[in-house]
Amino acid sequence: GDVAVLVPAAGAGVRLGPGGPKALRLLGGEPLLVHAVRRVAAARGVRLIVVAAPPADVTFVRELLAPVAEVTVVPGGADRQSSVSAALSAVPADVEVVLVHDAARALAPAELVESVAEAVRAGAGAVIPVLPVVDTIKEVDASGTVLGTVDRSTLRAVQTPQGFRQDLLAAAHAAAVAAHTDDAGMVEKLGERVVCVPGSDHAMKITRPIDLVLAEYLLTRAAG
Ligand code: CTP
Ligand code: MG
């Protein structure tokens, strides 16, 4: 296979509360990053995994992941985008398909990695996994007054892994000026087409303490 997967894992995890970098916080006794990398490594066609670790924890992360999978570990940057750029620099030019997958989506299944990679191989330049939005969404002004109700049927919640032709992802990062929260957003700015594939409930992002509770439940249920 000819797929590289970049795993940004250098964030502080401020919204999760005190306890160190989020990717190293425990879920079922193992760091989120271990769960994420194990599932990525189980996906068909993955040739290379590059983790962007908190700069102070690069050596620790290398040792942590050595028994899990063969990975390259690089120091991450000050924001997600620079962590992804740092990881992308470690990918050889002949790798055609590059996925970007948040360590915070620790339980994203190997099948989702495979379906995103497959959509890129089939010809899409940029691919994102999505789910329908379940909440009613309102637009509000700064004072908290409702301006209107957004038509939910055209909205999607976006997950990772996101998949790209390597040349397109590199061009998007080279052109990006503002900080983006996802890589497909940078590709959109280039005017390139981004296509959707079905996401997974298990690819939920662990952001707040309640998300960790749900993830613990999903993990226990999967094992039982
Ligand atoms: N990330 C990164 N480098 C950064 C910031 C974020 O590699 N400088 C990674 C995180 O480790 C995470 C993913 O990007 O896997 C998504 O970011 P997020 O969920 O926001 O994680 P944190 O930034 O760690 O959390 P918070 O924003 O609450 O501090
Ligand atoms: Mg963050």
The first-to-last residue Cα distance is 32 Å
Strand content: 15-25%
The CATH architecture can be given as Alpha-Beta Complex
User: What is the rounded Rg?
Assistant: 17 Å
CATH fold-level assignment: Spore Coat Polysaccharide Biosynthesis Protein SpsA, Chain A
Structural features, described:
The structure is a single chain. The chain is of the alpha/beta class. The protein has a single domain (3-223), classed as Spore Coat Polysaccharide Biosynthesis Protein SpsA, Chain A. It is 32% helix and 23% strand. It has helices at 32-41, 58-65, 80-88, 110-121, 166-175, 183-189, 209-223; strands spanning 3-8, 26-27, 30-31, 46-53, 72-75, 97-100, 126-132, 138-140, 146-149, 156-158, 162-165, 195-198. The strands form three sheets. Strands 1, 4, 5, 6, 7, 10, 11 and 12 form an eight-stranded mixed β-sheet that branches. A two-stranded antiparallel sheet has the order 2-3. Strand 8 (138-140) and strand 9 (146-149) form a beta hairpin. Helix 5 crosses helix 6 (183-189). It is globular and about 50 Å long. The mean pLDDT is 96. Cytidine-5'-triphosphate binds next to helix 3.
